Amino acid sequence: MSTLSRDQILGADDRPRERVEVPEWGGHVFVRAMSGAERDAWEVGLGAGSETQNLANVRARLAALCMVDEEGRRLFADADAEQLGAKSAAALERVFRAASRLNALAKGEALRIAGE
Fold it and tell me: Does the predicted model carry a pTM greater than 0.90?
């Protein structure tokens, strides 16, 4: 492997996405990897490093952050997570699992974060 330049690193398409079928919603969505800054903000919102974690609506919060259109633009704002949380638990779980995998949440970490 060669040494990368600044431009190569900044220009790399390093945030994969995948199509996830969501029959409860009648179609599919695209789920993508977060940026480093998004991941940090999401973890801060969970209360990472504190004695108590804020796991309220955790699946919908991650789904809102990671669901995108075909061009990679977010479908939901952070503020939409509350409404999204009212949707099917099975559908949200499917999106949550894909987002966990794409964002390199270790298997145990994803389960711990989800409170399982």
Answer: no
